[in-house]
Fold this sequence. Notes:
This protein is α/β, with parallel strands linked by helices. The chain has helices spanning 2-6, 10-28, 33-40, 44-56, 79-82, 87-98, 113-124, 139-145, 170-176, 202-214, 252-260, and strands at residues 30-32, 60-63, 66-69, 106-109, 132-136, 151-155, 159-161, 166-168, 181-186, 190-192, 196-199, 215-221, 233-236, 241-247, 264-268. It is globular.
Amino acid sequence: MTARAGNLPDSVFARERQQQIARLVAEAGRARVTELAGTFGVSAVTIRKDLLALEDRRLVIRTHGGAIALGESRPELAFDIRERLQRREKVGIGAAAAAQVSDGESIVLDASTTALHVARHLKARQAAWHGLTVVTNSIRLASELAGHPGITVLMLGGRVRWEALSVVGPLGDGFFRRVNVQKAFLGAAGFSIEAGLSDAMEEEAQIKRSMVNAAREVYAVVDHTKWGRLALATFCRTDRLAGVFTDSGAPAAMVAALRDAGIQVVEAGQPGAADGVDPGEEGAS
């Protein structure tokens, strides 16, 4: 290890350590900060910086006290973990979708992390609202908008799912049979032209079907990682979509096919360093 002091910068050894950490997490499925610190003989602060770098490269997902492997077959992740994935893309999608909303409308936002970013951008348009109604099954989203001037929040009843911080069940179905909304903005675990929008959990798909049925216009809010994927339960067929809000990484062939079918596709740019703060997230980690 004498070469370290003489010739090689610390960053070289950091990259080597990070590669080994990524391999250990992939093999075991998860790892704790304390265990990794002991294995590599460095501080917990150093390991946390390594995990942050690995998450930025989409090699692991940070959790409280450690990290888990990022894999296609992983089970549904907790909301706070999913919220960090493709964060910059979701901020841009949220801004573009929020611009589609007009005062006086009634809209639906689901419990997806991308819909939360739509809500934050709606909240940031402080002078725009006098009579906007937002219907949601998201606990996080409802608390984000609650009490905001000019915005009325209607929260669905039912069973709380902690994984998504959402409310699901037949009580929500009954509500949507009695109301009409102008626009629904829905996230998804998967999106394909053949199957449409799909979710990993049937309970979530069931309430989203009610949202689709109640809305005059349905918009997908899905980052590029969801395109071409098929999750367990379809809740909205492609021909029911009025538009799709996504990012520039969406597959060009699929984007072209949607536009040829008359479906609006907005490829939102990612915010730059100067405007990259997500509204409502000051001080968040």
